[in-house]
Write a structure and sequence with these properties.
Elements: H1 11-34, E1 46-56, E2 62-66, E3 72-76, H2 82-98, E4 106-111, E5 116-120, E6 126-128, H3 134-144
Antiparallel strand pairs: 1-2, 1-4, 2-3, 4-5, 5-6
Length: 151
């Protein structure tokens, strides 16, 4: 048998840690509930926009059409432009979770400040595309410019 006694952990630091954790959770909940501390970009005038639909093709490509008239604006061949595919799959997943189908269009908009956004008109989700770099923004600029279909 060993001659060492096990000493309990001091109560003071344990209680202080518990109070700190509880206070952190309370402040986070209050902030989420009231919106305090939330950072949002101010609204900007839209200078160009188009409502679009995205559809997977049988060959694995993605077809982008104008929601107003069904005109094909762009086709992304299989295995190309993973950024567009990733953004659209993320938005489609949100719609599935909310029980929303593919019917409502997405809105691609260019603001007067040069900011390019993609909005889901069904869920209200807005993605600021310029945060992902110029190459990725370029993929959506092609759609906004109504470029000819690239096969």
């Amino acid at each position: 048998m060993h001659g060492h006694a096990i000493e309990p952990f001091p109560r003071g630091p344990l209680l202080a840690a518990g109070v700190l954790i509880a206070a952190t959770i309370a402040v986070a909940a209050w902030s989420r509930h009231t919106g305090d501390g939330r950072v949002a970009l101010p609204p900007v005038e839209t200078i160009a926009s188009i409502d679009v639909a995205f559809a997977d093709r049988a060959d694995g490509g993605v077809e982008v059409t104008a929601a107003a008239d069904g005109r094909v604006l762009h086709v992304y061949e299989p295995g190309t432009n993973g950024f567009v595919r990733g953004v659209m799959r993320g938005l489609a997943r949100e719609r599935r979770l909310a029980g929303i189908g593919a019917g409502p269009p997405f809105r691609l908009a260019l603001g007067a400040d040069g900011r390019l956004t993609l909005s889901d008109t069904a869920t209200g989700r807005v993605i600021s595309l310029e945060a992902f770099g110029p190459d990725n923004v370029g993929a959506f600029v092609e759609i906004l410019n109504h470029r000819e279909v690239r096969q």
